[in-house]
Design brief:
This protein is an alpha/beta fold. The protein has one domain: Metallo-beta-lactamase, Chain A (4-Layer Sandwich). Helix content is 25%, strand content 25%. The N and C termini lie far apart (44 Å).
């Protein structure tokens, strides 16, 4: 495989974070896939559906060796995250991690009976996962947008892998770098999605408080969402958290649509 320099988000002293190619084309939503590796032991984040399995499998084989894939992290239950899980569990010895809320739902994606035991539940509080010689934080992100939702924070690289939160769509760039117009990016490409899909101020306030505590202890230098542009630089990260904390979304704004429909549904 060939990785551009920009696809290597972090590489220092045996610890690496990779942005793997967006394998989604055609009608599929654009999706970023991330691999975190420490001393060649890896965790794959939100691996996606059946069509991306083969090229992604090949890339991971080259990067760390498929036998060194220890964990598959599933931030929530959506098909762009989970649909290809059976293939991963059949062809590797990895353990898959997902919120306990979705344990009985995920087998509907076609998990073979003999691999179901390697799908493990996460409690609402998340936890700390040992990976190689490092620790990975699985942090709660419930109602952003799933009721059982988690994100990954890597204290070595200081990257927040934010899943669907801070999704962006429609821009022609992959990175928001220090000095770029972060306010324009958030307003034009992030806000429409966050306002419709996320849980609103009741969720944003405690989530922002948690992120600031993480930043005070470890630092956050990058936000890497599952869809769209990656936000780089501590100043951009802090502006993003402040913007999100004060945004009305989801239940804050959806009330007016709750009324009896009065228009026919017509498909041309």
């Amino acid at each position: 495989m060939f990785l551009n320099k920009e696809n290597i988000l972090f590489d220092k002293e045996g610890h690496q974070c990779f942005l793997l190619e967006d394998y989604g084309h055609g009608e599929m939503v654009q999706a970023n896939v991330f691999l975190i590796a420490d001393n060649k032991k890896g965790i794959l984040l939100d691996p996606g559906g059946h069509k991306v399995f083969k090229p992604l499998f090949s890339d991971i084989s080259e990067l760390i060796g498929i036998q060194n894939l220890k964990y598959i992290f599933l931030s929530h239950q959506d098909p762009d995250i989970v649909a290809g899980l059976n293939g991963w569990l059949i062809t590797t010895k990895a353990t898959a991690l997902i919120s306990k809320l979705w344990m009985r739902f995920i087998p509907h994606y076609g998990l073979d009976r003999y691999v179901v035991s390697r799908l493990k539940p996460l409690e609402d509080e998340g936890g700390i996962l040992k990976l190689g010689n490092s620790e990975i934080f699985i942090i709660p992100a419930h109602f952003m947008h799933s009721p059982g939702n988690f994100q990954i924070y890597d204290p070595v690289s200081q990257i927040l892998f934010s899943g669907d939160m801070f999704f962006s769509f429609g821009m022609d760039y992959m990175f928001v770098n220090p000095g770029d117009d972060i306010e324009k990016h958030l307003k034009e490409y992030v806000e429409p999605y966050v306002k419709r899909f996320m849980g609103g101020k009741q969720i944003f306030k405690p989530y922002a408080r948690m992120l600031r505590e993480i930043d005070e202890i470890f630092g956050i230098k990058m936000i890497a969402p599952q869809h769209g542009a990656i936000i780089k630089g501590h100043d951009n990260v802090m502006k993003t958290i402040e913007w999100m904390e004060n945004l009305e979304a989801g239940p804050d704004i959806i009330g007016p649509v709750f009324k009896i429909p009065n228009k026919p549904i017509i498909f041309d």
